[in-house]
Amino acid sequence: MKLTEGTELLGLIRSGGELDGRRKLLLTVKLSAPAIVAQLSSIVMQFIDASMVGHLGAEASASIGIVSTTTWLFWGMLTALATGFSVQVAHAIGAGEFSRARSIFRQAITSTVVFSLLLAAVGCGISGGLPRWLGGADDICHDASLYFFVFALFLPALQLNFLGGAMLRCSGNMHVPSLLNMLMCAMDVVFNFFLIFPARDIDIFGVSMSMPGAGLGVLGAALGTVLAETVTAVLMMWYACVRSKDLSILGVKGGFLPTRDCLRKAARISLPMGTEHAVLCGAQIFLTVIVAPLGTFAIAANAFAITAESLCYMPGYGIADAATTLVGQSLGAGRRELTRSFAWISVWLGMAVMTVMGVIMYIAAPSIMGVMTEVVPIRELGAAALRIEAFAEPMFAASIVAYGVFVGAGDTLVPSVMNLGSMWVVRITLAAILAPAMGLQGVWLAMCIELCFRGAIFLIRLRYGRWMRRI
């Protein structure tokens, strides 16, 4: 019988069955495709937010842009904790220990909810002063504080969204998280449409219609996003807890109190990742401080360009998600050569896809920025930044997917140090040197050089490093 279904091919990993090169590539593509869609849906949601807010003016765009790096910091910490448990689930499923996988899932729910509540309290506490600490001007600080407060308040829902999606992906189910992320994107559009803009008349095929609206501006963008994330979190966790064949805990006896062993393993994976995210986002915040003196146009253009570029690199993160699943389950099954093979197939696939995306981004940069804002100086600055960054995409892909490989192997400490060293030593130093002379383009040139360097060192570690020492 010809095996073409992803679940059947994953079963060959656990059962010790043979996988030829075609089947390995097929499985990698089958897991990557829905993961890419999920990642792109998340970024399209940010793109939509930025585009809708961009029509309110430069100040509204800058008020979100000034706190965006801090929101990534909190996102990264939530993701790191969810990964600490989901990688354990991948190893357990790869070894065929489904009861242990469910036990880890139950413990993860308790641990992540407690952590996200604490993080939400911290976020709400700092929201008032954060924009001023980052160098924001008086005309954007109020909206920026309000946006971040709403974001922080709903962190527990975001955490459960991340946890449910990570657990399903590591069990080999890429389709449900993908579909739910697409639904989240659609809900975000609807919520934003009614919350951001005031009541108004619009023309649809020549027919004038009165459209209701709350007119909340930046606050409406925040509320629209968190409401979409909350609905998605409920659906994601319901599917994982009730419908998932490998993870369902409904009617299955077991405790939710975390054990020392489970927490220790989660900490070994999550702490380096969380620390890395914190320090990397600290570097991004430092870059925001470098950009802030360049003016409101530069702040807005930088934020828009970052959102637009993410459309290019999110396929890499989707392939990295697939690599984490494949490597994690292969490692759990104790299959060394298969683990290495999936690692390289994933990395080369990521580099190929992101090279194509880089070419598209270079050509379409002015059009992409034109969708997001009508302010000409912002559009020109952003397009120039994107065209610089396009040259870094192949090597950026290498670092993204290789990192996903290392996470699947439970090897996060050394890769985290590599990311930190590259960001702080190369990017920050170059940005500080180039920004005064070249403006925003100098900041993005520094980013391009650093990402190429980072990709090179990750490829070297993938080839010569001891990341498979646990097998």
Q: What would you say about this model in short?
A:
The chain has 471 residues and is mostly helical.
How much helicity do the residues have? Answer: over 70%
Poorly predicted runs are none
Got a strand count?
2
What value does the average pLDDT take? 86
Q: Label the overall shape.
A: globular
**Range of strand content:** under 5%
SSE run? HHHHHHHHEEHHHHHHHH
End-to-end separation:
31 Å
- Kindly name the structural category: mainly alpha
What is the oligomer described by this structure? single chain
Please tally the helical runs, counting DSSP H or I stretches of 4 or more residues. 16
Main sheet: strand order? 1-2
Question: Which descriptors would you attach to this protein?
Answer:
471 residues; two-stranded antiparallel sheet; mainly alpha; 81% helix; 16 helices
Structural commentary:
The chain crosses the membrane at residues 31-52, 72-93, 113-134, 146-167, 179-197, 217-240, 342-364, 443-462. It comes from Heminiphilus faecis. Helices cover 81% and strands 3% of the residues. Helix 10 (260-291) runs parallel beside helix 15. A hairpin with a 2-residue loop joins strand 1 (198-204) and strand 2. The mean pLDDT is 86. The chain is mainly alpha-helical. The protein contains 16 helices and two strands.
